[in-house]
Amino acid sequence: MSELAHTRAELAAARGRLTGRVGVVMTMGALHEGHEALIRAAREQADRVLVTIFVNPLQFGPGEDFDRYPRTIETDLEICRRAGADLVFAPSAAQMYPGGEPGVRVSPGPLGDDLEGSSRPGFFHGVLTVVLKLLHLTRPDLAFFGEKDFQQLALIRQMVADLDVPVEIVGVPTVREPDGLALSSRNRYLASDQRVAALSLSAALRAGAEAAEAGSDGGAVLAAAHRAFAAGDPATKLDYLVLTDPALEPGPVVGPARLLVAAWVGDVRLIDNAAIRLDPRP
Ligand code: PAF
To answer: Is 0.70 topped by the overall pTM?
Structure first.
């Protein structure tokens, strides 16, 4: 049975009872198998697992989906229990931000203005601020984040390095549906035809990866990915499709690389990415 804490005081008391190495999995709820994979990874690598559930208003821009973001706390708690979480912290906004929205926020630096940050100004300020607060409140030895949000993962790694936060960040591979769609809480918004249209994202990544495996250079990999995206449902509007190095610096790239895509399916914005390897030409 997972213990449940709603307040900072309840968390502090319950956290004090957790012995050994503690792993935290931070979520906004609406849990799915991707979150279960994070909890399982935490179970394997830590002695105790703490899950946080908080829909963070700071990381939603005006007109974004804060109000309609799925809130499924009862199912989430059941998933946490089943996946083996020892403690769940599900605070209110008043618990997280007792003085109202914080005036001081973590600045993500230049990478925070790129890609997701370019389409969602202020997004990474909100993410890093809540992640840092939750790290302070939960005091984990390890923190697990999904590679699906690859830029978020990179920025969290950079934050803990730059600000000397004593925690090990662990990235966990993306979980996909059998047809390739990356699991995301926002997939719940998709109507069945949109669910099919959304496959353009993973199809683009797959085409890029196949081109890389066949020995193509970066330009050809990106072109193959664009072709595959364009061959999908025209209802899916591309935001960006880029090839970067694993630290998200823009190309030219040789060796390990990352292909990242963001697109709108109707009014639902989805992201995905894949690791690829670009071998130098002989
Ligand atoms: O990835 C998410 O669900 C959120 O951005 C996070 C890390 C829980 C912060 O609110």
So the answer is: yes
For residues 168 and 190, membership in a common domain is answered with no
**What are the tens digits of pLDDT across the range 6-42?**
999 999 999 999 999 999 999 999 999 999 999 999 9
- Considering only CA atoms, which residue is closest to atom 1 of ligand 1? 27
Among this protein's residues, is 35 annotated catalytic? yes
8 Å CB contact between 27 and 53: yes
Distance 124 CA to ligand 1 centre (A): 10
Ligand 1 near 127 CB (within 6 A): yes
Cα–Cα distances in Å, from 259 out to 29, 149, 215? 27, 12, 16
Cis amide bond preceding 282, omega within 30: no
Q: Domains in the chain: how many in total? A: 2
CATH of the domain at 261: 3.30.1300.10
Same domain, 53 and 119: yes
